[in-house]
Amino acid sequence: MELTLKPILPTIAKLMQDQLRKQAPVATGALQRSVVVKAKEDKDGVQLVTGYLTYGIFTDSGTGKFRKPNPNAIFNPNPGKGKGGIKPRYWTNLDNAVTIRIARIIEREIAKQIQQSFRK
């Protein structure tokens, strides 16, 4: 029996995309509208690929003396203003509630596939 996440990949990608769009900083709305998440499954596993306008990385991890890339940082909706650069917002890091929701979707799909395998 081979388990696959293929049936739920669009759901997970949409959930992530919606959350990242909510977290993206909004001045004109261009960055927010540009956020796209696509799910891919291949022989190596599952990938969720994000895309957005180039300047999004600067609003995410900061610039100048404030530049602090941190994949484990918590989303900071109000980084404040700083002289000498942009303070990091970490808007590309998913909120814990969304991560838990995605894990539950995956768990339900795997349980469903296991149940179906026993019915055969």
What does this 3D model show about the protein?
- It is a single chain.
- The protein has helices at residues 9-23, 30-34, 56-61, 96-119, and strands at 36-42, 45-51.
- It has one domain.
- It is built from four helices and two strands.
- The relative contact order is 0.18.
Brief overview:
The chain has 120 residues and is an alpha+beta fold. It contains 4 helices and 2 strands; from the N terminus they run ααββαα.
SSE topology sketch:
Blueprint: H1 9-23, H2 30-34, E1 36-42, E2 45-51, H3 56-61, H4 96-119
Antiparallel strand pairs: 1-2
Based on helices, strands and strand pairing, what is the structural class?
A: alpha+beta
pLDDT under 50 segments (min length 5)?
none
Fraction of helical residues: 40-55%
Assembly state (oligomeric):
single chain
Q: Number of helical runs?
A: 4
Distance between the termini: 11 Å
Number of strands: 2
Query: What's the number of domains?
Result: 1
Overall shape: elongated
Spatial strand order of the main sheet: 1-2
Q: Approximately how much beta-strand content do the residues carry? A: 5-15%
User: If you average the pLDDT, what whole number results?
Assistant: 92
Please summarize the sheet with the most strands.
2 strands, antiparallel
Q: Which sequence of SSEs, written as H and E, runs from N to C?
A: HHEEHH
